[in-house]
Amino acid sequence: MAVMEVAFDPHWREAWTRQQVANSLAMPHTYAILVDDAGGDLSDGKEAAGFILARRAPGEEELLLIGVRPDRRGRGIGRLLIERFADLARAAEAERIFLEMRANNPAESLYRSCGFEPIGRRKDYYRTLDGCFLDAITFARKL
Ligand SMILES: CC(C)(COP(=O)(O)OP(=O)(O)OC[C@H]1O[C@@H](n2cnc3c(N)ncnc32)[C@H](O)[C@@H]1OP(=O)(O)O)[C@@H](O)C(=O)NCCC(=O)NCCS
User: Fold this and answer.
1) Residue nearest atom 8 of ligand 1, based on CA coordinates
2) Record's superkingdom (predicted)?
3) How far apart are CA 44 and CA 118, in angstroms?
4) 50-57 and 30-35 strand pairing
5) 77 C-alpha vs ligand 1 centroid, how far in Å?
6) I want to staple 67 with a disulfide (CB 3.0 to 4.6 A). Which of 7, 46, 47, 119 is the partner?
7) Which atom of ligand 1 lies nearest, measured to the CA of 68?
8) What is the pLDDT of residues 49-75, one digit of tens each?
9) CATH second-level architecture of 2-142?
């Protein structure tokens, strides 16, 4: 939650609340990946630099949310998280991984360079703080 609170611009209303995260992690197939500054697993009370929330289903997995602290961006932590997620999905015998993003999210360049391709669009799926609507784009990557 410490990363969640600083990683997401409230304007886009993408961040989840503690309750939403807790509810989702209470489901048996939802999990989180947390890494420190160096991309390592959290240990010895280290602070998280980034996280992924993901959900597993038979044959596929979905990246629900990814965030990296603003002062730790541009160092490859986001890419490392995505590759760790892909490795876990592959180990669970998933054939495809998915994610969904608001249409104007600059993270698109990261997703595309990690091998994700757009496969669908949901019209006016997101509503910003000032009441504007934005499409959601679904991306998939074959493993
Ligand atoms: C998206 C996000 C997780 C990327 O984290 P990061 O640690 O900065 O990512 P990386 O350092 O691994 O970047 C990998 C590449 O993607 C590009 N990239 C990543 N985020 C970018 C952004 N916001 N704008 C433009 N390019 C971006 C980088 O330039 C880099 O390219 P390179 O490898 O060719 O140099 C981070 O920007 C973030 O937390 N954003 C806010 C939350 C959000 O929008 N999450 C996605 C929706 S759930």
Assistant:
1) 73
2) Bacteria
3) 39
4) antiparallel
5) 8
6) 7
7) 39
8) 999 999 999 999 999 999 999 999 999
9) 3-Layer(aba) Sandwich (3.40)
